[in-house]
Amino acid sequence: MNLNRLVLKSMKKNITQYYLYFFALIFSVTLSFSFITMQYNEATQSVLTGVLAVTGFKVATVILYFIITCFVLYANHLFMKRRTQELGLYQLIGMHKSLVVRIIAVENSLLFAGAVSIGIALGFLVSRLFGMILLFIVKETVVVQLTFSGEALKQTLVMFMLLLMIVIVQTAWIIYRSTLLHLFTATKQADEKITSFKISHMLLGIVGVLLIGYGYQKSTVLFSGTQSGDTLFRNMVVILATTIGGTYLVFRYSVSLVMNMLRKHKKGFLTIKDVMAVTPVMHRMKENARSLTIITTLTGLSVGILSLSYISYYSAEVNAKNTSPYPYTLMNDDTIFLQQLEKQNIPYRNDKYHVKLVDVDLTSVIENEDATSTYVLPLSDYQQFAPKKQLASNESMLIGMSNFLQGALTVNEHTPFQLANTTLTITEVNDDFAISQSLVAQSPILVVPDQLFEKLDVPLAHVQQGITLINDTDEPVAERLFATITTGREYYVGENNKRTLKIQSQHQIITQRIGEFGIIIFITAFLGLALLITTGSILYFKQMAEAEDEKTMYTTLRKIGFDTTDMMKGIYLKQLYNFGVPLLIGLLHSFFAVKSGWFFFGTELVAPLLITITVYTVLYILFAGLTIQYYRRVIKQSL
């Protein structure tokens, strides 16, 4: 029998196992080709013009390649493990290991050729959908046409040719380092014997929980107080190490502790649910600990990154209004735009804000703040923004305290301080943004009574004009006028006029922010989806392999009288552990990670985080449902 016939017979024999590996390859090709093709579509190229977008997609492509490579290598490793007895049989009848490697290499080449062909066709169709989603997110109304990209084809072919070479090397490594005895017993050996309860396991399990708790506690104070960049980086490394290390110990020993306590409590009299759920988990404790730790960490990482990106996108409009609190903002005595509005008979309201930069010591009032100067605004000006606000002669307010500032600074209200020989206390701290954040360099503003403001013997730093149209129907004309007048114009602001301020309308800033953050959230969502499907598929493939390994146990249990319903109760508990526990711990990791620094990214935490968590939970439930259905089919076929 020549090599080609041997390969075809081998592939025909393993068709029931090949489809998993084949699906993994098709999915990987489809994902990568569609993502690359979308970048070369004329419709999407209109929004992928900035440095951020171009760089983001290039970095995302590299990350996507890395995810796909890990996914395919794991799938191939799992597939090779299922074929160990076949590989041992080849060697037992006299085949050299080099010939076995050649057989598997030819099989992989045929699989890759078929998967790449199908994946490219599917990716070509899916790329239009992804392009439409991208344009919807950035709120662009452009028709996306199906476009085949030769460059995307070339990149995909090169990528998967390299991946094929890596897979062949992996296969050769597995074959050359395995003995005949190992090949015949690899699928029958448990990675750990069920032993009696040990004090060391209990201690290590408790240490794992404590390490995770320490990482969580450390994350809650990560950005509190002033600290150097080296200290911040060191704290991040400590949080990462303790959380991941604790997660491994929890899966490796805390679960073992709970299982052994359960067995001890039942004094050896295990129910069918225990046999189906507890025993298989304990037999694979080491392997499960490693894989579930990785999956939990990746889940937490992807949920965290996607949540932060969604927070930025969700808060884009609010942040834009903080940068420009009025539809149109002018500086000092600039009246050109106002003259144009009057020529067009467009009514408007002009709120003027007079800002001074004053030397004042607020170190006793604002912790972690060593600035010696503060922007000051008179109460009457602030009342244009908040008419009901009032101050006594010895009172003041701190406005413009963003989420970031509220997270980084602690304000001691009612603590007295001196300003122009007057003793004041801060009676209120809020996030009102009457003054453009760009104008005051993201600093909070001190609001004082008018009499005190007049006593401040310093010149005006800025005069902000906030223009609001009386009629919303005049907005299109006003936008066109403002864009024409302010294009290319910049103001010099700040102390000694060291900073430049680009003039944009509120609508322009909102559009720009939504475009920037829309691209970011699309990239992170795409990579998050790839990572989620990858981790879900790995769990699914792993459980399918375990189901096949345990098929003889199902046959024995059915012969002694247990039906499918009885056995499935144990399967439900087992999948609750395999899918539910990694998801729960991963979501906890992401929650504390996001909570520690979400204020850097936006103004809203709850809604973006809940939406992201819900999406991930639903998709994990779908994978768990598929796994349960596969177990049900295997159990029914076991007799």
TrEMBL record:
TM region positions: 20-40, 52-75, 110-137, 157-176, 197-216, 236-255, 292-313, 517-541, 576-594, 606-631
Main location: membrane
InterPro entries, per the entry: ABC-4_Integral_Memb_Prot, ABC3_permease_C, ABC_permease_BceB-typ
Bilayer topology: Multi-pass membrane protein
Gene Ontology BP term (one): transmembrane transport
Locations listed in the record: Cell membrane
GO cellular component, one term: plasma membrane
UniProtKB keywords: Cell membrane, Membrane, Transmembrane, Transmembrane helix, Transport
Domain ABC3 transporter permease C-terminal positions: 60-176
Family the UniProt entry places it in: Belongs to the ABC-4 integral membrane protein family.
Name assigned to this protein: Bacitracin export permease protein BceB
Species this protein is from: Lysinibacillus alkalisoli
